[in-house]
Write a structure and sequence with these properties.
By secondary structure, this protein is an alpha/beta fold. Strands 1-10-9-6-2-3-5 form a seven-stranded parallel β-sheet, sandwiched between helices. Strands 4-8-7 form a three-stranded antiparallel β-sheet. Helices cover about 30% and strands about 15% of the residues.
């Protein structure tokens, strides 16, 4: 696991560099896209590079991490709409290139199985962008989630609904109580995981992710078992890391030809 501590705009640049490097080497790469506030600056940077430098996503396929269950098709907080506003409408991803679990399916378990199969048919995810919740969840894998889990139905905790209430007019009761989410094993199958976290509210979760024991109590800790994980955090999110100076030193001394 590589930990990089920098200002938020620099973290966004580094994450965009990793995506651009992948697309130059493999224009038909498969991306894993996260929603929420954590990747927003990354999407802004990718959109800028597309507009100003011609970075192309024309052959890319993409998969979303999760989706709320039961939100109407036209609801602005459906993640299909969110990712369209945040990224897809600003670049040249072709129609139908972005896939997400079907939160309106009649048979939700079958929808989860179909989503797993779609990721497998695409050859798996090359680079997955991630955020982390204040309780250590990734995607909607709440504390207690199986580290071997696959795409499934989950119940959202009150804490997560309170964290997400800002997207629903501040009303936690308006946040759906159920979701479909990629499991921890599904996420871990991606070839490169890039996790972003900013702000003091994420500090405890980041500490557990990087330096705590691997445990379902903090689901993100499963990333410690992955061979290629990049954790991008600002000073506030890194404030509880005991080895922060070590991470700064190793990144500063990294050979210049190596990317993330």
């Amino acid at each position: 696991m590589e930990v990089v501590i920098a200002a938020p705009d620099e973290l966004a640049r580094l994450a965009a560099d990793a995506v651009e490097r992948l697309l130059v080497a493999r224009p038909d790469a498969v991306l894993g896209l996260a929603t929420g506030s954590s990747p927003q600056l990354v999407y802004d940077e990718l959109a800028r590079r597309h507009a100003e430098r011609g970075l192309s996503f024309a052959r890319v396929r993409a998969f979303l991490l999760d989706e709320y269950v039961g939100l109407p098709a036209d609801h602005p907080q459906r993640y299909r709409h969110v990712i369209d506003a945040d990224l897809v409408s600003r670049i040249d991803l072709p129609p139908g290139a972005v896939h997400g679990p079907d939160g309106l399916a009649v048979d939700l378990e079958a929808a989860c199985a179909a989503y797993e199969a779609a990721i497998a048919r695409a050859g798996g995810v090359d680079l997955q962008l991630l955020g982390i919740g204040t309780d250590g969840h990734v995607a909607f894998n709440e504390p207690g989630s199986s580290l071997a889990s696959r795409t499934r139905i989950k119940t959202l905790t009150l804490r997560t609904r309170q964290d997400n209430a800002r997207f629903f007019g501040g009303d936690a009761d308006a946040v759906p109580r159920h979701c479909l989410t990629q499991g921890l094993a599904t996420i871990s199958a991606a070839r490169h995981l890039v996790l972003l976290a900013t702000g003091v509210g994420k500090a405890q979760a980041v500490r557990q992710l990087v330096e705590g024991p691997v445990s379902a109590r903090w689901p993100a800790t499963v990333l410690q078992l992955h061979p290629h994980v990049t954790v991008l955090v600002d000073e506030q999110a890194a404030s509880l890391l005991e080895l922060a100076d070590h991470y700064r030193e190793t990144y500063a001394d990294k050979p210049p030809w190596q990317g993330l």
